[in-house]
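My main concern about presentation is that the manuscript never shows what a single data entry looks like. For the editor and my fellow referees, an illustration may be useful. For illustration, here is how one protein appears when written out as sequence plus structure tokens:

***
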Amino acid sequence: MIFYGKLALSNIMKNKKLYFSYLLTSVFTMVMYYIISSLSLNVGLEGHSTLGSFMNLGRYVIIVFALIILLYANSFVIKRRKKEIALYGVLGMEKKHIMIMMFFETCIILLGSIFCGVVLGIIFSQLMYLVLINLLHMPTEFIFSIPLKSILETFIIFLLIFVTSLLFNLAIVKFSRPVELIMGSQNGEKEPKAKIIMTVIGLISLFSGYYIAISIDDPMTALLIFFVAVIFVVIGTYCLFVAGSITLLKLLKKNKRYYYQTNHFISLSSMIYRMKQNAVGLANICILCTCILVTLSSTVCLYKGIETTAKNSNTVDELLGTYDEGGERLFDIVRENLIKYHLEYSDYFELEKYEVLGKMKNNEIVFESEGNSNDLISIGLMTIDSFNKAFHQKSTLKDNEIIIYSDFDMNKLVLKLNNKDYKIKSQFGDSRIKGFNDYFSLEHLSIVVNNESIIDSFFEHKPSSLKVVGFNYEDHEKFIKTRKNILDDFTMIESGYTESNKQDNLESDYEIYGSFLFIGVFVSTMFLISAILIIYNKQLSEGFEDQKRFEILQNVGLSQKEVKGAIKSQVLIFFFLPLIVAIIHLCFAYPLILEVLSLFSMGHVNNYIGYCALCVFGLAFIYSVVYFLTARTYYSIVKR
């Protein structure tokens, strides 16, 4: 057994260029999983159910991607080692001995990866803990912890993944003949034919996805149909990369002026010969890049809009309301407890209103709740008496006059309500008039009329009135005690109430969107590493396959400069085509994503294009760095 262990270690060292990406990927995925697992078990984050749900979701995503990425990396390694493994058989080693050797190789890689992954995971998990509590604005102390359960989970999960890879490798040895293995690393794709049907399917799928993305203008519909558009775009991307790219290369080949140039001749000949395999890899990179751009830009937009959303949805620090008949009793209880507990407060108001949905068509308000949510607005109706009492005004109105407050520009002199014209006497500027805005994602319009009978005339069945009390306060801790007493007193005499507290809502939003951003960055990092791994392994594989061909070309007179030019031409196409297509996907997805984001946030949605631009530039920069490193690796192989 010692012999097999030494042989396995020797093989790994001799193939260190092949095993580098595999080992790096193993360590990276283990670090990622350990961090998420340890954070979900950190005692400092206990009691945050939303955060725990996001962390568990992140664990499952990382497990799936770790399985896919490591199996891909393993397939790349075993493909390049087939000839070496076959030579062991030719030299007299039986298949069972080769399998034992591969078992020891897997054990060495697994143990090395586990050790490095867990050690680095412990170090970076503490850093990620600090980042997370900062994102969530959580007033919690730093707690250093090393959950043994996370270490055990990491070991078991990746042991199973490595066992799966080992079984795959052993199956190749078991069911292949030495001749097949010797030729395995040299097998190339036959020159593919143009696939017209697949190209047509790809075009139809892609443009169907694009059409859905740009035509939907209702947030609820956008949320429901988002994944349908994604499926169409994914199918179209794969079909067009596999079929459309071949057609493009064949057209370029027919262009003799372009094709018969040294750089173009070599790169086109190389890519068209193995385009089927390359096209799938390019499509994978494109989809991963699109996922990075969409995930990062969306989560950053939601997170950056938290403060604005909280401000728009909560006009004061505390709002209490009821639809029951006991609204006056609620007002009395609130006033009594504010005095009893000596809570310093300001901007106090008591308001009775009717909250309904409607549409604005030119100068006409139609009270209805059906239709496209983009056309709907939230409407608050109240009498002049309720308005004056709540905001200490002394306004008067005639039956054909109204006072309005709006979240949007209202450059109108007259509004038509229930087929009757009402003159806009003035516009009120205090946002407290919104009270509870049950439809916070919609724009709001408050309308003050002269008396109750006018409101009665608007509806066949008048909705229940909402009694609202609101105020600002200085001491949140002191308010918590006051609120408990208010709610205890009120629920003793009434059945239900509605409450909205700005601080509580802000903390909840930070927990939800902060967790969303944290997991989004994690998942995007996984996508990015996956894309880089595919690029690196593909270029490494291409380099080994092109090595002898470029050696022959150099022997017949091709200069080093011409080799570099050919490599640059090929790698540029390979690298930047997926990124360009991913940016095009993002541009077409922009309207659909904007509609979905408007459901969750009133703030910073208009800045989404800026976040998209930042993500595009950031990804393009990283992409360019990887390009230069990959081109150098490829060139170092083929120039030998």
